[in-house]
Fold this sequence. Notes:
Elements: H1 2-20, H2 30-46, H3 53-123, E1 125-131, E2 137-139, H4 141-146, H5 158-164, H6 167-182, E3 187-195, E4 202-213, E5 219-228, H7 230-270, H8 276-297
Antiparallel strand pairs: 1-2, 1-5, 3-4, 4-5
Amino acid sequence: xxxxxxxxxxxxxxxxxxxxxxxxxxxxxxxxxxxxxxxxxxxxxxxxxxxxxxxxxxxxxxxxxxxxxxxxxxxxxxxxxxxxxxxxxxxxxxxxxxxxxxxxxxxxxxxxxxxxxxxxxxxxxxxxxxxxxxxxxxxxxxxxxxxxxxxxxxxxxxxxxxxxxxxxxxxxxxxxxxxxxxxxxxxxxxxxxxxxxxxxxxxxxxxxxxxxxxxxxxxxxxxxxxxxxxxxxxxxxxxxxxxxxxxxxxxxxxxxxxxxxxxxxxxxxxxxxxxxxxxxxxxxxxxxxxxxxxxxxxxxxxx
Length: 303
């Protein structure tokens, strides 16, 4: 009977404490455990009076001091162990969630990097960053491919970059970049040729960058892009060649028209006895021919 009452009483106190507590269990201070242990053991001692009077006095005489002084300390010790266990579990869970969050972030970052690399490869556009103080040059993979190099297989520096610029353009490129830095310009832009490694294939590129400045105004970093425009240049050359060929054909057609009209006029002058109808026929034909040839060549007819 007494044991059952002790269990019910202390259990009920624990439930009441759980609902009245305004903070998480792992935030419970040591003195709160001490007070709870003291209160629950005082109740336990009080319930000893449910025993026969002589038995109650005997039991209380034996256990009062340990219960009032040692048991609350034991409650504090057990509570501290429980708090540390909860805190450790909570920290472990938070660390795991942080790792998972970082993993998802790393996956998204890698996807973005892969998408950027793929886009640059399709557009033949690479990006670069130059630290002026150290001369260190960072290239994306597409820049390496534009120069005919294996990605990340080359220690990129500004001086090494100039070695791949066409010898006839090297001085102009270096001067243009240096002037943009020295004159306080915010950007740099130029078209020039490069020679691919191993094959020495000539490629045309369009290059542009913006400068980052220190508070003093000095340029400390350049961030730019380089685009392979060889196909565009070749297309422009083909268009120019086609236009030149078209002009040549039109000029040739114009000369043929003039020569033909001259022959017809010479025949008319050499045959004065030709009938009026025949002359009109020839003139009519020459007029039609004049109109046809002139419409093809874009020139005004002579007659």
